[in-house]
Amino acid sequence: MEAEFHPAENISIVESVLYGPSSDAVELEQTSYELIKACVEDAGFEYPATFPSSDLLLGEIQPILPTLSVEQAQSRGYGFSELPVTAQRDSLAEYRAALESDAHRSAFDSTLLHCAEAAHDTLFRDYGLYDEQRGVLESKRIEFYTAFDASDEVRSLEKEWSKCMGGAGYEVDAHWDAVGLAAGGQSVQQGHSPDISTEVRVAVADAQCRLATNFEQRYLDLFRDAESAFVFDNEALLLEVIDLRFGKLNQQ
Question: Disulfide-capable partner of 177 in 130, 158, 172, 241 (CB 3.0 to 4.6 Å)?
Fold first, then answer.
């Protein structure tokens, strides 16, 4: 029987709070866009950038662990061939390149910088401090993920899964190594798949070993416990970053 859990269990609480598509996040980006656009146009330039949809703007928060069922693996492997091909037009870069001289391009660059800083001053109590503290938090998150993957509990779980994969003929130490093996050791380019037969064989073995070891649920349980400790240890910093990002906006 396949392991089942609610999709919300597979999302980092910290990432969801900081970068999720909340109404505050959308409003902040929308207001920032409008302020910058008006500022640039007041300086005599065009601002051809269009405000994207909230989904494109904020992106999709990636799951803690991309899940894989046996049925999925049998039908599409890891889904490499289904990765979307996205070629986004950079209308600002095109407009800048079309300006008549280097002097005009330099003036446009300076205007963009000035207008962005002005928008930050309007929307943030202290954007410099927000940027600094966000950097501190991101460094701590990187350390957290590194320590989590290297923890005895996770390594023990990976060894169980790895032993199962070895029995299927694949020598891999960690679950992400299976994806690399299926891709032939190469980065998977959007819209381009490695050999599908190899991908499917590795993915099926991976899915079966995940099922045999209850890998996904156990991995997520370990992550939840570790992330709860991370939130407890860094609560003050998390609240500060959230307040620095949205505090002034919520008072307006």
Answer: 172
207 within 8 A of 69, measured Cβ to Cβ: yes
From CA 29, how far away is CA 57, in angstroms rounded? 8
pLDDT at 17: 81
Please tell me the distance from the alpha carbon of residue 252 to that of residue 250, in angstroms, as a whole number.
Answer: 6
How distant, in Å, are the alpha carbons of 12, 79, 110, 199, 221 from that of 170?
A: 30, 20, 55, 12, 26
Quote the distance between the C-alpha of residue 232 and its chain's center: 22
Spatial separation of the C-alpha atoms in residues 128 and 133, rounded to whole Å: 9
pLDDT for 187 = 41
C-alpha 175/C-alpha 167 separation (Å) is 15
Residue 64 phi/psi, 5-degree rounding, is -60, -45
- Cα(194)–Cα(177) distance, integer angstroms: 15
Please check the confidence at residue 173 and state whether its pLDDT lies above 80: yes
3 vs 104 pLDDT, higher one: 104
- The alpha-helical segments, DSSP class H, found in the chain are 13-19, 23-42, 54-58, 70-76, 91-98, 102-123, 127-150, 152-167, 175-182, 196-213, 215-233, 235-251
Q: Is the separation of the CB atoms in 11 and 61 below 8 Å?
A: yes
CA distances to 2, 6, 8, 131, 209 from 11, in Å = 19, 10, 6, 24, 22
User: Is the per-residue pLDDT at 56 higher than 70?
Assistant: no
